[in-house]
Amino acid sequence: MKINGVQYRSVQVDPDDNWTILIFDQTRLPFSLNVLRLTGCVQVAHAITSMQVRGAPLIGAVAAYGLALALRVDAGDDAMERDAATLAATRPTAINLRWAIDRMLAKLRPLKPEDRVAAAYAEAALICDEDVAQNEAIGRHGFSLIRDIAKTNDKNRRINILTHCNAGWIATVDWGTALAPIYMAHDAGYDVHVWVDETRPRNQGAALTAWELGSHGVPHTVITDNAGGHLMQHGMVDLVIVGTDRVAAQGDVANKIGTYLKALAAQDNKVPFWVALPSTTIDWTVMDGIREIPIEERAASEVTGVTGQTKDGRIETVRITPHDSAAANPAFDVTPARLVTGLITERGRCAASAAGLHSLFPERQSQ
């Protein structure tokens, strides 16, 4: 996707140093566009844990490169397994991270240590290219939903789409998941407008989704997390599209905290609620998302404080709660499949159910 007319990917090998990995520091957005140079496994693990890089598909791709960087130091069996475990443990909810590490190990374990570095970089690059292709396909399948709404709308009426958190191109290698259909509709000339949930406590919507939509020229409005239901009640939302960090084999969806409440409001107001995901986000081993998907608990300081830009341009974090008040910070919630209109994958759309998923992925029937 583009920033001020310049094409970017969210992770790439440094063209001036074929061993170094470049990412955007997402903790600095939207106030500054900082590029981080990652040269080792420890740096990659920190970038994922601190959310300098985030988004389920993207952290899988970056972790793959992290293992490649680790192998440059020690490509032996013990070191490779240790570094893979370190990377896999950085965040527990997003299944893409574990998937990418497992794929890398499956490729690398049979090889001699001296052959592993080149193979690791090649496999990580392949993971990135596949992610781009998958997300572009998700965009096409989701775009048809928007096109169908346009056909039934009053002539020239704007199509209003609500999204939660950030599932755009900076959460993937390119295109994004939930935002890919929106970009395609906008680029095709459709009058789309996005309601952007702020997404407390880290404000990924207000900071990241609003920034990337604005950079691409897509009309949008930032709203408080609690405004979505009100907008739906008054006919101001045509469609909800969100991303996900893990989908259970029967359609339950884990996504950023607050997604469940949006799904409840959507069902009550008969607003379609769609979830966009690459197949790497499906966990075929989980049959009950509410009971089985681990929910990351992040630091209380993300709730008790808020970071923003002062009038003189400084980035500051201020406390917003009493000093003696405790704070809990579950990073995700699980939306039951019964509240999900359907899933948008690279192979097409389906019902949020085991039967629906198997219709697109028949090779998984036995699992």
Automatic annotation (TrEMBL):
Pathway terms, separated by semicolons: Amino-acid biosynthesis; L-methionine biosynthesis via salvage pathway; L-methionine from S-methyl-5-thio-alpha-D-ribose 1-phosphate: step 1/6
EC number of the protein: 5.3.1.23
Keywords for the protein's UniProt record, in alphabetical order: Amino-acid biosynthesis, Isomerase, Methionine biosynthesis
Keyword Transmembrane helix: no
Marked site (Transition state stabilizer) residue numbers: 165
Coiled coil regions, renumbered to chain: none
GO molecular function, one term: S-methyl-5-thioribose-1-phosphate isomerase activity
Record field: catalytic activity: 5-(methylsulfanyl)-alpha-D-ribose 1-phosphate = 5-(methylsulfanyl)-D-ribulose 1-phosphate
Catalytic residues (UniProt): 245
Keyword NADP applies: no
InterPro entries: IF-2B-related, IF-M1Pi, IF_2B-like_C, Initiation_fac_2B_a/b/d, M1Pi_N, NagB/RpiA_transferase-like
Family classification: Belongs to the EIF-2B alpha/beta/delta subunits family. MtnA subfamily.
Function, as annotated: Catalyzes the interconversion of methylthioribose-1-phosphate (MTR-1-P) into methylthioribulose-1-phosphate (MTRu-1-P).
Protein name per Swiss-Prot or TrEMBL: Methylthioribose-1-phosphate isomerase
Organism: Acetobacter fallax
